Amino acid sequence: MPVITAIRTDDKEKESFKVEVTGDDGQSVTLRIHEDVLVRYELHKGQILSGLQLDGLRQEAAGIHAYHAGLRYLAFRMRSVHEMRDYLEKKDYSPAQIDFAVRRLKKERVLDDHAFAESFIRTRMKLSTKGPKLIYRELLQAGVSQEYAALSETLFPEDDQLEHARKYLAKQTASVKNKKSSAEARQVLSRLLMQRGYSRKISDQVIVEIEPFLAENEKSALAYQGEKAMQKFKKFTGIDFIQRVKTYLYRKGFPAEEIQSYLDGHTSGNH
After folding, report:
1. Which residue in 17, 11, 115, 111 sits closest to 69, CA to CA?
2. pTM attached to this predicted model
3. pLDDT digit string (tens) for 161-201?
4. For the domain with range 113-156, which CATH number is right: 2.60.40, 1.25.40, 1.10.10, 3.30.70?
């Protein structure tokens, strides 16, 4: 029967011990065992081990390395179970070692998808302008269940969503300034807000709040797009030219009466 012939502290790994086990054939193996395993198994020099006990110690010895690697990975920030498994796989730990590490980390509650999701959401709320639907998608990508990812809606009050959406929208108005009609600007900004993770309701509400900007912006945008249209179709003349410019501007979302007013002021005596 295998017997423990020596137990020494492990100088390379804190809280670990080197346990030397010698078999009936005189061959010895050294297992690196965590101190809590040493206590749990009540290991001591001269102890005779059954085959089952030795197999258990081998599993513990193999898994403890993955466990400590997992702890180091968690030192930077919280991780999802999926992220942890991916990380340990990339470190070339075996499935058995990874299972051991994940079970132990979950048991110690340092690896918890529910807590991870809550922390992730609150961090996104604090440090970004991302909406709940985008945060939900990010959590799914991190391997969190739909149930926990859905906390992005319940933990993100509507008032805070509106505040974040306004901040994001304020930065995005530059993409439509002096270039887009009110109608096209609304479409562009609404699409950006929804891509950022906000609902149609939130998007519509914050866009309504910038109507004065959109109305004023439309005037300069019409001048900009009108000039582009006239340059684009300058080889045409008469009604053909007018109709092409009108169609171009109409497709850009400018109201028919504003297009006509613009043309009246820019085509008299030309074409």
Report:
1. 111
2. 0.76
3. 999 999 999 999 999 999 999 999 999 999 999 999 999 99
4. 1.10.10
